[in-house]
Design goal:
- There is one protein chain.
- The protein has about 140 residues and is an alpha+beta fold.
- It has one domain: HIT family, subunit A (2-Layer Sandwich).
- About 30% of the residues lie in helices and about 20% in strands.
- The protein contains 3 helices and 5 strands, in the order αβββαββα.
- Strand 1 and strand 2 (about 30-35) form a beta hairpin.
- The termini are far apart.
- Bound molecules: adenosine monophosphate.
- Adenosine monophosphate (AMP) binds near residues 20, 35 and 99.
Length: about 140
């Protein structure tokens, strides 16, 4: 597996070199909105310490990330009055990963509503509002 590349976009977000719509952070993890949201409330949880994905993550990183995933998933479910939550997580190119810093996708879901196709930039004002809505439910 290739070494961690500290020029990936999430490493730049962690260093404050590019902006994000922050939802939550603690000492070990950060949650921010996906800018190509496949659902309303689509957000990402990442560890602050570097790792590519689940395959090289430490047990401590995974524990910290999953704790934040659970916290934010419940807040997003409340904020969007969702009936369920879908988590997505991809490992290496063959596994569908595009950004090589470990991340979990959180999607609030409603019965009978499909996820939108990937790759379409969202409206930044709407995404900002969704970040505030989840943060308020935390
Ligand atoms: P994947 O590695 O397949 O989980 O895909 C990376 C995800 O990161 C996609 O859902 C992108 O929309 C998202 N993404 C890429 N750049 C940014 C960014 N600057 N801020 C927030 N999300 C991003």
């Amino acid at each position: 597996m290739p070494a961690y590349d500290d020029q990936n976009i999430f490493a730049k977000i962690l260093r404050g070199e590019i902006p994000c719509f922050k939802v939550y952070e603690d000492d070990e993890t950060l949650c921010f909105m996906d800018i190509m949201p496949r659902t309303d409330g689509h957000c990402l949880v990442i560890p602050k310490r570097p790792c590519r994905n689940v395959l090289d993550a430490s047990d401590a990183q995974l524990a910290a990330v999953m704790s934040t995933v659970k916290k934010v998933a419940n807040a997003a479910k409340t904020a969007f009055e969702a009936e369920g939550i879908t988590l997505q997580q991809f490992n290496e190119t063959a596994g569908g990963q595009e950004v090589f810093h470990l991340h979990f996708h959180i999607h609030p879901r409603h019965d009978g509503v499909s996820m939108r196709p990937p790759g379409k930039m969202g409206d930044m004002d709407v995404i900002k509002g969704h970040a505030e809505k989840i943060a308020a439910a935390l």
